Amino acid sequence: MSRNLYFYISLTAITIISLLFLTGCPGASDYDIDLPDNYSIVRTSANEVTIAPKTSKDSWGSTIIPAKVTEVGWDDQYIIAKQINIDSESSNGSGIPDEQEYHFWIIQIKTGEVTGPLDDLSLTKKKEEYRISNDIVLKKIEDLKKNYTY
Description:
21% of the residues lie in helices and 38% in strands. By secondary structure, the chain is of the alpha+beta class. It holds the Pfam family DUF3997. InterPro entries: DUF3997. This is DUF3997 domain-containing protein.
């Protein structure tokens, strides 16, 4: 094999490997987070972080809390989630999170009933109505233990 051919093959291989590292592999950072009673936080892309019921080890039912879930807290009766809106009018079609536009959701674990979207005042009223403990603290998704899909 000539030196030039070896050089070009090596250069091509290095370029391809570098591009893979720079762009990442699809799904490499996908994960789920276990919640009580077979509910899960499911991340399928940077902005697609939802809550859905887990139907088996690696599959989930329909989304019950839409993207983008950013915080969650629970006790043995309720799951409370904070969800920020995604601006679907972005130029790349993937949406841009709007941190200023957020809602809360409540899942009653035993019945599966979902209440939301709620603003701050409505959340406070529902917590009083349902007698939800003030001990439930919302934690950022980044701080929870993740099960990486790949």
